[in-house]
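User: Fold this, then the next.

Assistant: Folding the first:
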Amino acid sequence: MGSFLSQPLEPIKVAAPPEVTNSAEPLPLAAPGAPTSPAEAPLLNNCWSCRVLSGSGLIGAGGYVYWVARKPMKLGYAPSPGTITQMVIGISIACWGVIILADPKGKAFRAD
């Protein structure tokens, strides 16, 4: 019982580095354009359903941020610089969602 922080830490086992050989032949290189490690893999899969989900989510989030900033103005309060900044950020988030949905470079594909 208890939280994760109260549990004792387990030691991390680090693998030994591979031995270096002094051979005259260099290691073969990866094909150009192919990811050489998992870290270089694309962050988004660019499938159509992923773009619709993330794009519409960003549009909704941007609309909400804008709406929350606009609500006091409708009640008659003067806009402050913070309110204007919040509205600009909300519009920017929504525009980011539109760009994801529009796919201007045409890299997305439909996963059928």
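Now the next one, as you asked:
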Amino acid sequence: MEKQATLKEKFSVLGSRTASRPIRSVAGDERSRCGLSKVEFMEKVRQSNEACQRGDFQEAVWLYSDALQADPQNCILYSNRSGAFLKLGQHQAALEDAEKACGLNPKWPKVRVP
């Protein structure tokens, strides 16, 4: 029997302080504004993390962007997408996402600037 992934494994390769926070959704509907259910959102995040792990950073950026449409206040997704942009050599986009992540959660250790 396959081991079920923990929330941390499902949500981010970096871990999550927002895993228990609800995803934006329309009242009475299981879908968010961009059409993702919570399960679909979690799958996008899992796929984006896997894309990063295998070095497919362009795919990761697309998947993180989809997930961010469902949860635009998620500093971890911005931080992860920033890392993917950096690997692609897209430094300005990486900086913008890092600044957004820091603005959303100034205590997030992955986005601290010395």
